[in-house]
Write a structure and sequence with these properties.
The protein has 306 residues and is mainly alpha-helical. Strand 5 and strand 6 form a beta hairpin.
């Protein structure tokens, strides 16, 4: 009894979030298309017994609900453009990147996503401080300070993600920090005198790895770098994305120009009147949907009797 009640509440909660999404028609259309594609991949993965992909699909469906959940719980409004970018980012990272192996098949896919991540995280950081600055009588922060906070917030998120990738690679050997083939390097380890002098090794043709079990692996055209180049590349492109939005945000706060793309990417706080209006509209939609379901059930029951 308790389980069925819990499931019923969960369904109503998810239905409520979807009704909130419908308030932005274009975002909801994009959400519906991507959700349908994820479900198709989910069905294919179940039939192929690829249970790791099934988990990624379920994770994607849950993440799709996060913007609406944040709006409802925090009483904020996420602009449709920003919301659409979040949906596309989740789909590109989890479905295309992980399940369809775009990270391996398409050079630069991971780089593109990390750049976008830096841009979006800077937008989130900028929005949080801008909200505080505009709705507080105690703070009057300069545009430069707002831009610096946005930049630092984005870089912090990027660094924490790299920590996560490193941890997963060390604990579960997932290779989230993708490897690179390196043809030359300098190392003090190769100094025969042990004086810390870097020895340059260049034009590497191949590297042979031997294990205690007797297995050997041959790396052609260089040696296998484990993670560090990928990590630094990700942080660098995250830096670029963070700088780009920080500059956009700086000039927007300075001039408050309507031509800037910043308003379409900045989260804003809902007023009590707006929050009440949205909830009333959602309840009205739910009432109409409930009436439609009841009418449908009545028609089905009538056909059975006839």
């Amino acid at each position: 009894m308790k389980n069925s009640r819990f499931v019923h509440r969960g369904r109503n909660f998810i239905r409520h979030l979807k009704d909130r999404m419908r308030l932005s028609r274009r975002s909801f259309i994009l959400y519906s298309i991507l959700r349908a594609l994820v479900i198709l991949v989910l069905v294919r993965s179940v039939l192929a017994r690829e249970y790791e992909n099934v988990a990624l699909c379920i994770l994607s469906l849950v993440l799709f609900l996060m913007p609406a959940l944040a709006e409802q719980q925090l009483k904020i409004e996420i602009p449709p453009l920003f919301e659409a970018l979040i949906y596309l980012f989740i789909f590109a990272a989890e479905i295309l990147g992980e399940i369809n192996h775009y990270y391996v098949l398409i050079p630069g896919w991971d780089t593109m996503l990390h750049t976008i991540n830096g841009f979006l995280c800077a937008a989130i950081g900028f929005s949080m401080v801008d909200l505080l600055n505009r709705h507080s009588t105690r703070f009057n922060l300069s545009p430069f300070f707002l831009a610096m906070v946005a930049f630092c917030f984005s870089m912090t998120i990027g660094a924490l993600w790299e920590f996560f990738e490193f941890g997963m690679d060390q604990l579960f050997f997932l290779d989230m920090q993708k490897d690179f083939i390196v043809k030359s390097f300098g190392s003090v380890t190769l100094d025969p005198e042990g004086l810390g002098k870097p020895i340059k090794v260049s034009s590497i043709t191949q590297t042979v790895i031997s294990t205690a079990s007797g297995k050997t692996y041959t790396i052609k055209n260089g040696y296998l770098d484990i993670g560090i180049i990928d990590t630094m590349k990700d942080l660098f492109v995250n830096f670029i994305g963070a700088v780009v939005f920080s500059v956009i945000g700086y000039f927007y706060v300075t001039k408050r120009s309507k031509k800037s793309i910043a308003p379409g990417l900045l989260i804003r706080r809902e007023s009590p009147e707006e929050a009440e209006h949205i909830e009333n509209e959602i309840r009205e939609r739910e009432r109409h949907a409930s009436e439609d379901r009841q009418n449908l059930l009545k028609r089905i029951e009538k056909r059975r009797r006839d």
